[in-house]
């Protein structure tokens, strides 16, 4: 183990600067640190596969990681474009939106963790019923029943919180 460690440390000291420069030229400084770290992590994990002249192997590894990072950045950009192209919600009173969000958040806190997880998987994570069922390790039918029951419990809990406050003839809340 100590021979492996010494070999890795020598490789790291000898080639770190070259790999940093290589990655920075392709990705810029902000993303370079993660790619360089991952390059040397892979080198450590696969030390037996790293040839004696390690620099070309490190470049190839970094190149693959750079390609992955560029694809990730492109996916993020595409998602940003899709989201910005979607029409916004109709303009409503900000106070109403805040009140609704607080009511739903409060209602969720009154549900069991099991119900919250079912609702989160479908409504927040956007998973289809089949995928959400896989996450929970149950059948689609069982998941649909859980989802139906969780929605019903949420509606029952949220309804009183979303009800309009009563206003008396003097304009005061009662």
Describe the structure.
The protein is 77% helix and 0% strand. By secondary structure, the protein is mainly alpha-helical. It folds into two domains: 2-85, Rna Polymerase Sigma Factor, Chain: A (Orthogonal Bundle); 96-162, Arc Repressor Mutant, subunit A, CATH 1.10.10.10. Helix 1 (2-27) runs antiparallel to helix 2, helix 4 packs across helix 7 and helix 6 (129-136) crosses helix 7. The N and C termini lie far apart (75 Å). The relative contact order is 0.07.
Give a quick summary of the entry.
This protein has 174 residues and is mainly α. The protein is built from 7 helices and no strands. The chain folds into 2 domains: 84 residues, RNA polymerase sigma factor, region 2, helix turn helix motif (Rna Polymerase Sigma Factor, Chain: A, Orthogonal Bundle), CATH 1.10.1740.10; 67 residues, Winged helix-like DNA-binding domain superfamily/Winged helix DNA-binding domain (Arc Repressor Mutant, subunit A).
